[in-house]
Write a structure and sequence with these properties.
two-stranded antiparallel ribbon; alpha+beta; 30% helix; binds iron/sulfur cluster
Length: 122
């Protein structure tokens, strides 16, 4: 397998700030099992209305960098707090050896000459 060209440990989790993170029926089942609650309860607690392609998406909470991000993102460590229970799309992303967000971050950090630089969206 080709080597990954991105490092999630050096990224503030841009992908988790995406406003439309789909939660499928299979994801709901996994989330319910992870939290030991019913699928209905998981849907209500962790998801909100999406669109016709993804009827349910993950809820967000406030984020100092991105205004909001996934409710399961630890806002200090920038890690997923439900790693074993996370939705399929979080497991698959970015699907290639490169991550577009990380390319952008790397480029800006070089330009700014600041290895910790983080772009905000507010
Ligand atoms: S945006 Fe890319 S580099 Fe950053 S955490 Fe997500 S997958 Fe990793
Ligand atoms: S479930 Fe975890 S990996 Fe998926 S968006 Fe939320 S914090 Fe990120």
């Amino acid at each position: 397998m080709a080597k990954k060209q991105y490092n999630c440990l050096k990224c503030p989790a841009y992908c988790c700030s995406y406003s439309h993170i789909p939660v499928t029926k299979r994801d709901l089942k996994r989330l319910a099992k992870y939290f030991d609650i019913t699928e209905k309860a998981a849907e209500k607690k962790f998801t909100k209305k999406g669109d016709k392609h993804s009827p349910r998406v993950l809820r967000h909470t406030d984020d100092e960098h991105f205004v909001t991000s996934c409710m399961f993102l630890d806002k200090k460590s920038r890690n997923c707090t439900i790693y074993e229970g996370r939705p399929q799309i979080c497991r698959d992303f970015p699907t290639q050896t490169r991550c577009g967000y990380y390319e952008f971050l790397k480029f800006e950090r070089e330009v700014q000459d600041d290895p910790d630089w983080v772009a905000t969206t507010d």
